[in-house]
Amino acid sequence: MAGPLLQTCCRCQSLRTGAIISGVCGIILAIVSLIVMFVARVEFKTIVIDWLPSNVVKIILAINLCMTILICTLMIVGVLRRNHYLMLPWVVLGIVLAFGLLISVVYTAVVFFIDGFVLAGVLWLIFGLLSVVIYVYMWMVTYSFFTILKEESDRGRYSQPYRR
Q1: Can you give the three-state secondary structure of the chain, one letter per residue?
Q2: What are the distances in angstroms from CA 31 to CA 3, 58, 73, 94, 162?
Q3: CB–CB of 117/161 below 8 Å?
Q4: Cys-Cys crosslink for 68: which of 6, 30, 125, 127, Cβ 3.0 to 4.6 Å?
């Protein structure tokens, strides 16, 4: 096996702590997004199927955010119980969402530029790409801990502990 990508989270915390922080942040962001989505008067559109009514897009987004809460909760339980199988949905979906986030950030920035909102486009690119970088880093932290747990599982429960 190749071993984990990272050894620590932010050079001062364990990968376990970083994975828990990733899950908790995912839950908090999903809850805040649900609240904002239903309180703010914002028209939601999709990139590909842009003919869907805003209410339908809201329902789809709400379902996705509820699934995010479930998957993050499963991941946190997996970390706490040292069960990599419970972490697997988050690890797989996380990297897919990272690409989706990147595409969404670039697409939205381009739309701002085309519509003449240059400052909004620049700010969207800066903060959006920063979000992508942070998200990918937290995915790497969680994936690294997932890899350690998987290697421990592959060696067997009562064999030697993982050594770097």
Answers
A1: CCCCCCCCECCCECHHHHHHHHHHHHHHHHHHHHHHHHHCCCCCCCCCCCCCCHHHHHHHHHHHHHHHHHHHHHHHHHHHHCCHHHHHHHHHHHHHHHHHHHHHHHHHHHHHHHCCCHHHHHHHHHHHHHHHHHHHHHHHHHHHHHHHHHHHHHHCCCCCCCCC
A2: 34, 14, 13, 17, 36
A3: no
A4: 30
Confidence of residue 56 (pLDDT cuts 50, 70, 90): confident
C-alpha span between 130 and 76 (Å, rounded): 24
Nearest-angstrom CA–CA distance, 139 and 93? 10
Question: The whole model's pTM is what?
Answer: 0.83
CA-based nearest residue to 42, from 54, 29, 30 = 54
Q: For 103-112, what is each residue's pLDDT tens digit? A: 999 999 999 9
- What is the tens place of the pLDDT at every residue in 123-147? 999 999 999 999 999 999 999 999 9
Residue of 15, 3, 25 lying closest to 33 (CA atoms): 25
87: its two tokens: 């972490």
